[in-house]
Specification:
The protein is mainly alpha-helical and 263 residues long. It is 71% helix and 0% strand. The chain has ten helices and no strands. Helix 3 runs antiparallel to helix 6, helix 4 runs antiparallel to helix 5 and helix 8 packs across helix 9. The protein starts with 14 loop residues before the first helix and ends with a helix.
């Protein structure tokens, strides 16, 4: 008979594994689940401010895509930075959502499951939109804003599998916020602030509106304090572990960037 308390696979306790674990220790996941409180907490602290910064950088440009492309033609560095920061912050939200959904699910499995699935599916859709944004900007750089606008206009509204996730972009934050409030993972004020994220515009080459800034400010209010609380929990890593992990992480990110640029 299967014993649910027994591990189905054995992890070999090799000398190499012991030495690697001692040199680069990883804190057990505990109640936060995957990806753990350090990754999840750091994502909560970094992701929302990056998105807000990106939105602020493009705030002076009109919302709709022809103006976004024209602005890129005139100010390519500014617009690329704005969209890059927004996309990076959105990417960092998946560990934040995973940890938050796990904490909700520990008290109410249904709210944690559907809030996490919907919110993370919406993040996948935003990643797809970011890819289309990048391609459109490259068209503006190589052919000019006019032809790029015509190309985007011709394909605007075309069906893609990610189109089915547009509703998840909106509903995911509402379900996650309601679940966080009902399970008391977040208080009523921060849960309401999290729900404001549903007001963030979605789609290709969407600029910044006053409602965008309100939504992203709410995301910061909801997640940044939660992330700081996670990072401040005991036990904390020793100085030696931090000194090893930080340069290794930066080196891996640099290598991934170089390899990505190489195609």
């Amino acid at each position: 008979m299967w014993n649910p308390t027994a591990s189905t696979t054995a992890v070999p306790d090799t000398r190499t594994g012991v030495r690697l674990g001692a040199a680069l220790p990883v804190t057990p996941w505990g109640a936060t689940g995957f990806p753990g409180r350090w990754v999840g907490g750091a994502a909560m602290v970094l992701g929302p401010p990056l998105m807000l910064t990106g939105a602020l950088l493009r705030a002076r440009v009109h919302f709709f895509f022809p103006d976004q492309l024209s602005a890129y033609e005139r100010h390519p560095t500014l617009m690329a930075t704005a969209y890059g920061l927004f996309a990076a912050g959105s990417l960092l939200l998946w560990p934040a959502v995973a940890v938050l959904a796990t904490r909700i699910g520990a008290r109410s499995a249904g709210w944690g499951l559907w809030g996490g699935v919907l919110a993370m599916s919406g993040l996948f859709a935003r990643a797809f939109h970011a890819g289309v944004d990048h391609l459109a900007f490259q068209l503006a750089r190589s052919q000019g804003a006019g032809p790029a606008t015509e190309a985007v206009s011709a394909g605007y509204g075309a069906f893609h599998v990610f189109s089915a996730l547009n509703l998840a972009i909106l509903a995911g934050w509402l379900v996650l916020a309601l679940g966080a409030w009902r399970t008391r993972v977040l208080g009523p004020v921060r849960a309401a602030a999290l729900a404001l994220t549903a007001a963030l515009p979605l789609g290709v080459l969407k600029g910044t509106t006053p409602l965008s800034l309100v939504a992203l400010a709410g995301l910061c209010v909801a997640l940044v304090p939660q992330g700081l609380a996670l990072l401040s929990e005991a036990p904390r890593p020793g100085r030696a572990a931090v000194v090893r992990w930080v340069p290794l992480t930066l080196a891996v990110l640099g290598l991934m960037t170089l390899l990505g640029q190489a195609g």
